[in-house]
Design brief:
The chain starts with a helix and ends with a strand. By secondary structure, it is an alpha/beta fold. The model is unreliable at 1-26, 281-286 and 636-647 (pLDDT under 50). The strands form 8 sheets. It has an 8-stranded parallel barrel. It contains 14 helices and 35 strands. The longest helix is centred in the N-terminal third of the chain and has 21 residues, at 123-143. The radius of gyration is 27 Å and the shape is globular. β11 (312-316), α12 (342-352) and β12 form a beta-alpha-beta unit.
Length: 688
């Protein structure tokens, strides 16, 4: 009842303010508020915003060719014109991220080391140009029907700490903004409290050694700013950033920001969260990614904990092939549930259900867009379906409720290629295969449809379905029947999923987890990139705690200083347990006593990455990787060959010794003495 009364009081406040600023708008813009995990309007409708960004400095406005020398009128005229041109080009956008760039608030002529250096910040200049530049731009955007998200000048330093100079700086900025008559409680203005925090010190005063303490302190850091603003009577929606350049939000599930009208501001670039990239991108270093399932798993780990309790706003995101030099992110649109970044990002944002997002592409480029398809061989950044503008333009039209026509075909897609009836679909425990009904438009973009396929599973203890993905829960096999209804009528498929831990199979073994490598499936020959890493990623984590040893066996020379490694955190840049081969052919982990080089105890109940680091100067051959109860490697509980034909299976004893090869399933256990066996990837008991 208390929250409901507070909400109605906010509506009364916002309603009176909306009347006082009606001269700004000329449009029927709804009052927005946060309700649980959703952003909603005053009628209770769920709202996800879609927009663009502007930065008000000469360099960001076409590299200083349009205005300079603190020319307020030149800045306003240029950026207001770009908003007009962008909307005139037909873009269906309803919010703008407005950067209060430090160009205006830093003392002219004072040298800094970058935007994270606040030593030149002049508070009086900030107040002056808040009134002269930033508020006039916010007013103009609102007059065009655009909600405004304001971010503070510059970016966070690499490490922040409760009570440090940067914390005091943010409090000073937001303390003033939250009392400004034109901003405080304005129903069309929201605030993003910082840009790209990287690290925060934990309770021990260090970075990285106390993950839980860092999560707790991040909440305390921003809670103080929130409380300051709320104490000033400012009830605007606030967007809270995470660490890791706004990529880590796991801690907010345990330590949420308290108060009303709170959401979380996220950044997404190719290579982040396991997504596909053409080249390592942006500050995180990036990776080449592992397709849709890897992207979804990373998103579920790093973003979904916050998305389950509050709305998400992606305030930086774009992509394009690197040849265009027109985007921050380097990847392709690709296909939903397939390779590439852009189409998969849209699918995941829609699947999450409460994600507002924008394109970080330059306003001058968006303003030049024309809805005229390009042709192969003559594509430009604006017409190439593999760059972000072309699909985004059509996706935003769809979000706005405009028809995209009927020039499309509907198909059931899977996130793994070559999934066919009559063939086993291999999957690793803790990993997923996704399925969705998708429309392919002839104009060169895809749309994910709201319809979900109907699914029946023969053994839910082996395979689960969450409306988007099939996830392997344990080793074994299960039959899955998938029925979809589309423009081509009703279609049904039955697939046998076979779950096994360490398949040396293309599409499952990834030679590019870090740096670009190669893998020969026939010979198990691997060559990593320089200081690279190859192996398996378990998106949802895998539980190996029931086993004693994990063993890898090598054939031939070790000329690349190969190291066998295991990670219990879903991030390659964390400290793993390591077992170097040296001059031996076997590397062994004791799963009951897993420790990193720094002595950190690893938890085998949630393992996310297993594989091989090397110098990258020479190939090496791994014959097998398996679980065992014997450190000498005489038993291998997961070294199981899965037949391509469902009716023929292999049979092992619990010591990993193959007893029967490619025998008919119905006769596989005939004549065996009483005991437990591994038959067709499943444990089976034979009685007396």
């Amino acid at each position: 009842m208390k929250n409901r009364l507070r909400y109605f009081l906010m509506l009364l406040i916002f309603g009176s303010i909306a009347m006082s600023v009606s001269a700004w708008t000329g449009m029927d813009m709804k009052v927005l508020h946060v309700d649980g995990r959703y952003l909603k309007d005053d009628a209770g409708n769920i709202v996800n915003l879609h927009g663009f960004a502007q930065t008000y400095s000469p360099w960001f406005n076409e590299r200083g060719t349009k205005w300079t020398n603190y020319d307020v009128e030149g800045c306003l005229k240029y950026n207001q014109t770009k908003i007009d041109e962008l909307l005139g080009a037909g873009w269906k956008m309803n919010f703008i991220r407005l950067h209060m760039d430090p160009y205006w608030s830093n003392t002219p002529g004072v040298s800094t080391t970058g935007e994270n250096d606040i030593s030149a910040f002049d508070f009086n200049r900030f107040k002056t140009y808040l009134d002269k530049v930033f508020i006039p731009m916010a007013e103009y955007a609102i007059s065009k029907g655009l909600y405004v998200v304001m971010r503070p000048p510059g970016v966070c330093p690499e490490t922040i700490e409760i009570g440090d100079n940067y914390h005091k700086y943010l409090k000073r900025v937001w303390g003033y903004v939250s009392t400004h008559a034109k901003l405080k409680d304005n129903p069309h203005i929201m605030f993003e409290l910082a840009n790209e925090p990287v690290n925060i010190k934990g309770a021990d005063g260090k970075v990285g050694s106390d993950t839980d303490g860092c999560f707790k302190n991040l909440t305390l850091f921003f809670q103080e700013i929130v409380d300051l603003m709320r104490g000033n009577g400012c009830q605007n929606i606030l967007w809270i950033p995470g660490t890791g350049y706004q990529s880590h939000y796991e801690g907010f599930a345990k330590y949420p920001i308290k108060g009303d009208n709170i959401g979380y501001a996220v950044h997404v670039y190719p290579g982040w969260y396991g997504s596909d990239a053409i080249e390592p991108s942006h500050e995180l270093g990036g990776s080449y990614g592992g397709g849709f399932d890897s992207f979804l798993a990373g998103w579920k780990t790093q973003i979904m904990p916050a998305a389950e309790i509050a709305p998400i706003m992606v305030t930086e995101m774009d992509w394009a092939p690197s040849k265009y030099e027109s985007s921050w992110g380097k990847s392709i649109t690709g296909k939903m549930l397939g390779e590439g970044f852009g189409a998969n990002f849209k699918f995941i944002a829609d699947y999450t259900g409460n994600v507002s997002w924008l394109t970080f592409t330059g306003c001058e480029l968006l303003a030049a867009f024309k809805n005229t398809p390009g042709s192969q061989g003559s594509y430009t950044f604006l017409t190439d379906p593999e760059a972000c503008p072309w699909p985004l333009y059509h996706w935003f039209k769809d979000y706005a409720g405009e028809s995209l026509g009927s020039n499309y075909k509907v198909k059931l897609y899977f996130s793994k290629p070559n999934i066919e009836e009559g063939r086993d679909c291999m999957i690793m425990p803790g990993s997923s295969v996704s399925a969705a009904i998708i429309a392919d438009y002839s104009d060169g973009f895809q749309m994910n449809l709201p319809d979900k396929p109907e699914v029946a599973i023969s053994d839910p203890s082996i395979i689960s379905w969450d409306g988007c993905s099939f996830t392997a829960l344990a080793p074994g096999s299960a039959d899955v029947t998938i029925t979809s209804t589309g423009s081509n009528g009703t279609q049904s498929k039955t697939i046998k999923f076979v779950s096994t831990y360490f398949p040396f199979v293309n599409g499952y073994f990834n030679p590019n987890i870090w740096e670009k490598g190669s893998f020969d499936q026939a010979t198990h020959t691997i060559q990593t990139g320089t200081y690279g890493f190859a192996g398996w990623k378990y998106g949802n984590g895998v539980d190996l705690s029931a086993y004693h040893y994990l063993i890898a066996e090598m054939e031939g020379e070790n000329r690349a200083q190969v190291s066998f490694r295991i990670f219990d955190i879903n991030n390659y840049w964390t400290d793993p347990a390591m077992a170097d081969f040296g001059n031996k052919t076997r590397a062994v982990f004791d799963l009951t006593n897993l420790k990193s080089n720094d002595g950190r105890k690893l938890d085998p109940s949630h393992i996310y990455i297993i594989g091989f680091w090397s110098l990258g100067n020479a190939p090496f051959k791994i014959s097998k990787v398996y679980l065992s109860d014997n450190p000498d490697g005489e038993s291998g509980l997961d070294n199981i060959i899965i037949s391509d034909e469902a009716e023929f299976i292999d049979v092992y004893d619990l010591y990993g010794r193959k007893l029967r090869s490619r025998v008919a399933r119905e006769n596989a256990l005939d004549g065996l003495p009483a005991g437990i066996y591994i038959a067709g990837g499943k444990k089976v008991y034979v009685g007396k």
